[in-house]
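Bit of a strange request maybe. I'm writing a small parser for structure token strings and I need a real example to test against, not something I typed by hand. Could someone generate the tokens for this chain?
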Amino acid sequence: MPSTPATTPDFEARHGFTGGSGQNQLNPIFAREGEATDFPLDEIPRGESLPGTAYQVVHDEAMLDGNARLNLATFVGTWMDPFAQKLYADTADKNMVDKDEYPQTAAIETRCWKMLAKLWNAPDAPDAPGTTGAIGTSTIGSSEACMLGGLALKRRWQHARRAAGLSTEKPNLVLSSAVQVCWEKFCNYWDVEPRYVPITDEHRVLDGHDLDKYVDENTIGVVAIMGVTYTGMYEPVAEIAAALDRIQTQTGLDVPIHVDGASGAMIAPFLQPDLVWDFRLERVASISTSAHKYGLVYPGLGWVIWRTVDDLPSDLVFDVTYLGGHMPSFALNFSRPGAQVLLQYYLFLRLGWEGYYKVQKASQDVAVYLSQAIGAMPAFDLWNDGTDIPVFAWQLAKGHTDKWNLSHLSERLRLKGWLVPAYPMPDDLSDLVVQRIVVRNGLSRNLAESLVQDITDAVAHLDALESPMPLDGQVTAFTH
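Reply from user aminoacidic:
Good idea to test on real output. This should exercise your parser:
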């Protein structure tokens, strides 16, 4: 492609340009010499390009991802205020693991997990009045936090078994069949047998029912989920703990709980403060959460807190000499961003308890509005109503139609820019397909009203079909 012709002196004079004709900086970015040349997709280009050109190419490709705020499939935050964005840009170079070089970021990390420990009602250490006996750390999202929680459960079980002269060959972990995929990975990576308690229409979450059939001497712990990924429902941690209390009375087995609070751990303290799910239950050994979900931080940041130092086996903590200093490390990742930790601290200062309450309540109000509007449509039956975390799911009403399914509705909504996934429920309910909406900070009531209208229009279009929609090519659009 020939380069853009040079401008004429007469043109430059009329439009106030100086500096001679034919200069590259006068050319619009899309007409720069070389701009029309395709960059290779799978190898490093041979030559350089201008920063503005490289930026525009990457920026334009990213536009193809769509509008993140209309993505109602993901739990991950998609909006922060301008001050947070500036702080993010200002601190993107900080390495969280380098506590010798960035001691203040390290101190802020400690402040944050101590704030969370108090929010989750961790007990005070008897030898340190006024301080928490808990210990915690930031992580790369709640998946790493869950991995660390699971590792601590396994190691504590191993220590107890070895001390008693017993085998440590067959550890197992009890989970709901609706558990998040990171727990499947944990069991796979660390050779732990997963024991899935199936959910049913009668027992829609893990609630302690028949738990004695799954727990034995090799059980390292039970995972309770505060906000099931499939539906957003809380698992009743207190009921699970009570079931384990009964099992201990009958068998002597003392089985701890890890609470996977990826979403609910940052919702329940504000919207359901009287709900007992946290360290108020002595059987809860550890709690994890995703800061980049309802902690309201950009991805990726998570937190994990243990009730006491004793709940985190000391042989999992390494003393590392790194870049001129010593530091304890209990993480799967090493070098990782420090900026998100500072963003979390910014939000704690910016919002406080009252601010978090207002933000989470606004999201819940929108979720309840949407669930009521969708539940009122003859085409649908609600699975839950969004009054736990601001997430809810619904199914197609039995007998409503034989011409379309929820995947067809998902496709229709995508034409309007909405990502609303349709997917089968887990084992024992895999014949049931539901659709789910995750309401995050940034989905306003006005947008929600537009969504209701778009769903209404899409259902009317599908109901008016004279023949069934094709099933070929349908994919499960499920985002954990």
